[in-house]
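User: what does the whole thing look like in 3D?
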Amino acid sequence: MGWFSKQKEMDDPTKAPSRSSRKQCWESRDLFFGCLDKINIINSLDPKHQKAIKASCSAEEAKFEEDCATSWISYFKEKRVVDFKREKFLEEMEKQQK
Amino acid sequence: MKPMVRKTTVVGLKNCYRPLSISAIKCQEAQKDGNGASGAARGKKPLSRIPIGAAETHTQKIDTGSTIEFTTWKAAALFLLLGGGVYYFFKNEKQRLEIEKEAEANRGYGRPLVGGPFSLIDENGEPFTEKDLLGKFSIVYFGFSHCPDICPDELDKLGVWLTELKKRNINLQPVFITCDPARDPPEVLKEYLSEFHPDIIGLTGDYDAIKSACKKYRVYFSTPPNVKPGQDYLVDHSIFFYLMDPEGQFIDALGRNYDEETGVEKIVEHVSAYVPKADREKRKDKWYSFLF
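Assistant: Here's the predicted 3D structure for the full assembly of 390 residues, as structure tokens:
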């Protein structure tokens, strides 16, 4: 990511993330994703959304990236897209069954 | 008619052969009886089905209703008794048999499909092999300590299961095998697992030992190639709980579709339906073995 020259605690390979640090990361993630919901952005990895994210959710994104391990950041961002697509798919399946 | 009667009398007299033991009177009586019988026979239709000399009342006795009624209530009682017994037996056995069948199918024929020998070390650095699974039910899970969300969720669920099962007097041996031996040495696993449930045993080893153990359990995992030292990464892996019986044989795989309650129910079902191998084989010789 490049913004952090110092290694984060979550990235320490010699230590497993603790329950509290996981919780902290998940909370920051939910705040960031809540902000993305407000500006109707699902895929935060898409370059075309970067400007809007910077404008409306930069604080939330910074907190999220600070609290979560580097590998988790992209994982959660990708998961948000996958979860959204799955939910939409299930909704459509249900509609078809009716 | 007249000459016929005379003829019969003549025949009768002629036929009365008298050995020393039979008196003349008896011989005459026998003759009279013979005449009587032939007289009765003459009164019947010429093609009567009743054999000459047979008791005519015999066939009529069979037609009386009393005997049939007697067998009916006896049969009804027998039917109810047997039927009730069989129904009770099947009602009790049906579910247990289904569960057992499922377990039997998962055991496979001969070589087990899931599980097998492995040689790893536990969170205290002590050796742990497949032999340590013997004598108790075990639940095996694969994961890694730097897992973002699924493994911790699943391990929390496992903790709930273990507590609930303990209340029901079922003691499972929970085993966590890491798919990320590079970042999960014994001391890291010990600290990591202590946050979930005190009973969970954490297993690690060198990369080849882990790879081999995962293969035995049909667990797919992939560590990204070219990881630089100190770089953070994720490990893809399959997420199932493997329930193993006290003989170290695979019973069932529990996926994420089992929640805090249904998982407990499923494990309880399997544990109570479990029959040791020796008993299973003994039962194959029994008369009702076709049921299993």
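In plain terms: The mean pLDDT of chain A is 87. The interface with chain B takes residues 7, 10-11, 13-19, 22, 25-26, 68-72, 75-76 of chain A (CB under 8 Å).
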